[in-house]
Write a structure and sequence with these properties.
mainly alpha
C-alpha cells in the first residue's frame, strides 16, 4: 500500500488557481463598477415635483373628457 500525503485536489499545475484569481478579479471589477454607478445615481437623484405631476394629471383628465 502506497502512502501518499497529497490532498485530494492538490496539483502542481497552477492553472485552476489562476482561473480562480482572474474570475475573482473580474467579479470584483464588475461589482465596483456597479457600486460606483449606484452611488452616482444616489448623488444625482432628483425627486419629482408632486404638484407638477398633479397638474399633468389634470391636463390628461381634461383631454380624455374632451375626446369622449
Amino acid at each position: 500500500m502506497e502512502t501518499s500525503y497529497r490532498q485530494i485536489f492538490q496539483t502542481s499545475n497552477p492553472g485552476r488557481w489562476n482561473r480562480v484569481k482572474w474570475s475573482l478579479r473580474v467579479i470584483m471589477a464588475i461589482a465596483i463598477f456597479f457600486l460606483v454607478v449606484f452611488f452616482i445615481a444616489l448623488v444625482n437623484a432628483t425627486n419629482p415635483s408632486l404638484p407638477r405631476l398633479r397638474d399633468k394629471n389634470e391636463v390628461y383628465k381634461m383631454s380624455l373628457i374632451n375626446i369622449t
